[in-house]
Design goal:
CATH superfamily of the largest domain: P-loop containing nucleotide triphosphate hydrolases
Number of strands: 10
Strand content: 25-35%
Helix content: 25-40%
Largest sheet: 6 strands, mixed
CATH architecture of the largest domain: 3-Layer(aba) Sandwich
Shape: globular
Strand order of the largest sheet: 6-7-8-3-9-10
Radius of gyration: 18 Å
């Protein structure tokens, strides 16, 4: 079952165009979103969340159009970027108290579990956190309201190898509970480990949206890793 669908999404900027972006996410699968800087990953993710106004196209979740059902849908999804934009001098406890008031499905038990797992202290302020811990805090909030879909923009950015390993293991556990995960990354080894599907964007256009196995078969050459396939495709596109 497709739990998220984008159909012919377009967004025009003076120096960049997102062109007829279409793909779907299946329930309970992990999808890696790849493309070089400036390819349109963040613009696509913002379009998926109505954080920018697209020129045309449609985004839907759970069979419901986003524009007509935004409030209901956003209670059922989680979003995290690789950075935190919260009040830097408020404590984690204070920020969480405000955040949880927006989510009827807030799960305090899950919050406490991830708080301990990520090694975060409620008395700390974002300004006191390392870049890696800021990422974990953002994920903590996204994971604590029983989100059915997680949309994550560079979630492993700034994490040390051990923390990345923990996070990817968490993705696999969430998937086993039916959570759909869509995340952009430049770290292709993360996708090798946990992704079921790949969406590849280049110059504002979706070039592939399929299972990881199909991507390697159809776009790769014998013996190539996912990283090698991606790098070769980008070199060929630049020629």
């Amino acid at each position: 079952m497709n739990i998220v669908e984008l159909k012919n999404v377009n967004k025009n900027y003076p120096a960049f165009r997102l062109q007829d972006v279409s793909f779907a996410l299946e329930e309970g699968r992990i999808t890696g979103f790849i493309g070089r800087n400036g390819a349109g990953k963040t613009t696509t993710i913002k379009s998926m969340l109505n954080l920018i106004h697209t020129d045309s196209g449609e985004v839907s979740y759970f069979g419901l159009p986003l524009l007509q059902n935004e409030s209901e849908i956003k209670k059922r999804i989680g979003y995290s970027t690789g950075t935190v934009s919260w009040y830097p001098r408020k404590t984690i406890r204070e920020i969480t108290e405000v955040t949880k008031s927006f989510y009827p499905g807030w799960d305090e038990e899950a919050y406490r579990k991830y708080l301990a797992l990520f090694g975060l202290e409620e008395s700390k302020k974002p300004i006191e956190l390392s870049e890696g811990m800021k990422v974990k805090f953002n994920l903590l909030l996204a994971l604590s309201h029983r989100a059915e879909v997680l949309i994550l923009d560079e979630p492993t950015s700034g994490l040390d190898p051990f923390s990345r390993d923990e996070l990817l293991g968490l993705f696999t556990t969430l998937k086993s509970h039916g959570v759909t995960i869509f995340f952009s990354t430049h770290i292709t080894s993360d996708l090798e480990r946990c992704a079921d599907d790949i969406v590849y964007i280049s110059h504002g256009r979706i070039k592939a949206a399929c299972s990881k196995a199909d991507f390697l078969r159809d776009c790769g050459k014998e013996g190539e890793t996912l990283e090698e396939v991606f790098l070769r495709l980008e070199r060929e596109a630049a020629e």
